[in-house]
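Task: sequence design from structure.
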């Protein structure tokens, strides 16, 4: 299970623990972006650092990835 975080309904700020938030609600499981450190409920979060690392596209479905092993028919982006 992921790390328990709390997020403010009003401003969106996240903290681990109770912290000083406007109106906190608990996340069940938070995703923390390895590239920019932002907490999100969406593991498909895209940020500028991640965009800069994208190197491959799938010839079959068009999906983008930083690693060719995550695609079924990888093609290097020129």
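Answer:
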């Amino acid at each position: 299970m992921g790390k328990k975080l709390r997020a403010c309904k009003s401003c969106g700020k996240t903290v681990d623990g109770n912290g000083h938030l406007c109106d906190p609600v608990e996340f069940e499981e938070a995703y923390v972006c390895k590239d920019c450190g932002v907490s999100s409920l969406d593991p498909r979060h895209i940020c500028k650092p991640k965009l800069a690392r994208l190197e491959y596209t799938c010839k079959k479905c068009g999906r983008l990835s930083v690693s060719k092993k995550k695609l079924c028919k990888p093609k290097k982006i020129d």
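The chain is about 10% helix and 25% strand.
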